[in-house]
Amino acid sequence: MNLLKKHYEKLILLLLLLIFIGLMFHVLSIVKQTGEIQDHHLQIPTREPDYKVQDPKSPTFDVSKIFENTRLSWVNPGAREKSAVYTDLAYVFKIAYCPFCKKLIPRKYMEEQDLCPFCKNHENKGAGFAKPPEDSVKVVIPEEIRRKYNLDETDLDSDYYDLDGDGFSNIYEYMMQTDMGKARNHPPFWHRLRVIEMGKIVLPINLKSVNMMDSDDPKQWELQVETDRMVNFYSIGGELEIDGTYFKIENVGREAGKAADGKDLFTLELKEVDGDRTLTLATGGVIRSLTDKAVLQDVFNLRKYTVAPEGTFNMGDRRTGSEGYRVKSFDLEEGSVLLESSSSVEGEDPAKKPEEQMIVTGSGKISPLFMVKVPKPKIESEMPGENEFSGAAPRNSRPNGRR
C-alpha cells in the first residue's frame, strides 16, 4: 500500500502511455488498410447491355418495329402546349418533306392543311397543304363476318380479342384467312415467335453460396449451385452438367471481401470430364453456352424456347393442336432463325399448306398492331334498379361471342 501511495502518479502515467501506444498501433493498422485499397476495389461491377446493336443497312431494320418491341415502356407525353414543333425532346411525331422548300416538317401541318413553318408555302401562293393520303389502309373485319361470330359491335377492341383462345387475335385470323371460331384452325404457331437473344447466351447457372463448414479445407466445403431455379449441393470432385457437357469441380478458390457486395468471392475451377475445356464459375458471375444458341419467345404466353441448330421444339396443346419445328440455321448478323416443320398440326396435311419460309426475327411475324388484347371486365352496377330508371340494356361481364 505504501508503494502504491508513493508511486501512484507514475503508475497512472504508465497506464496512459500504454493506452497511447495501443491507439497508435490501431491508427497505423487503419492507415495500412487504406493504403491497400486499389482501383479495382472501387469499381462498380458492370452488367450485360440491355440493348442490341442495329445495322441500318439490314433488310430487317425497321425503326417503328424497334420502338414497338423495345423493352422500355415508351410513353408518349404529347407536344408541349399543343404545338406541332416545340417539344421537350420526348415527344415522337411523324415528319414529312415540304414539297416546296424540301425541308423536314411535322406531318401535322399537312394533316391540318396548314402552312409550312419555314417557307409559308410561298411557291403555292400561300395556300395551305392538300390533305395527305393515309399512311396505310386500316384493316377491319367486315360486318357480315362480325355478325357470323357474334362480335360485340359496341366494343371497339373486339376485333383484337382472341375468340377461340388459340393465341391469335380475331383480326389477324381474318387476315390469314383462318377460322377465328375454331381453336384448331389458326395461323402457324411460329408466327407468334420472336428472337430475344442469340449467340453465346447466358446459361441459368450460378454459384449461389459456399458453406465452409467451419473448415479451411476446400474439400470439406459445401457448394450450392443453382440450375434452372433448382439448388443442388456439390463438393470438390463432383460433376456439374453445363450445356449438355459434364464438368468436374477441380478446385474452389476464395478471396476475402472481393465480391461485389463486399463478401467473400468464391470461384469454382471446372474441367471437362471427356475433354480439355475449362470453365470458371464465380459468385455473382455467369457462364455462357458452349455453342451458339437462340432464345425464342412466344409473344402470346411469353414462353421461351432455347434452341440450337438441328434442335427441335413443339408449340401448342391438345386443344389447339401441336406443331413441331426444327431449327435449320442461324443468321447471327441478321439476328434471325430459319425453321422448318418437323411435324404437322394434328389432323391436317402439311402438303396442303402454301410453302413459306419460316424466318423468325427480333420483331416477330405479327405486327404489334394485331396482337391479342385482353378484354377489360365490365363492372356490374352497384345501384339496384339502375337499368330500370335509365332504360339501358343489362350489362355483360364479357363481350358477346367470348367462349
Give a structural overview.
This protein has 403 residues and is α+β, with helices and mostly antiparallel strands. Among the domains are: 75-135, no CATH class; 189-198 and 292-370, no CATH class; 205-282, SH3 type barrels, CATH 2.30.30. 15% of the residues lie in helices and 24% in strands. The chain has six helices and 16 strands. The protein has helices at 2-35, 63-68, 108-111, 143-148, 170-175, 386-390, and strands at 95-97, 104-106, 193-199, 205-211, 222-227, 230-234, 239-242, 245-255, 265-272, 278-282, 293-298, 304-307, 312-317, 321-331, 336-343, 358-360. The strands form five sheets. The protein has a four-stranded antiparallel β-sheet, with no helix packed on it. A four-stranded antiparallel β-sheet has the order 13-14-15-16, with no helix packed on it. The chain is extended and about 115 Å long. 16% of the residues are buried.
Fold topology:
Elements: H1 2-35, H2 63-68, E1 95-97, E2 104-106, H3 108-111, H4 143-148, H5 170-175, E3 193-199, E4 205-211, E5 222-227, E6 230-234, E7 239-242, E8 245-255, E9 265-272, E10 278-282, E11 293-298, E12 304-307, E13 312-317, E14 321-331, E15 336-343, E16 358-360, H6 386-390
Antiparallel strand pairs: 1-2, 3-11, 4-5, 5-6, 7-8, 8-9, 9-10, 11-12, 13-14, 14-15, 15-16
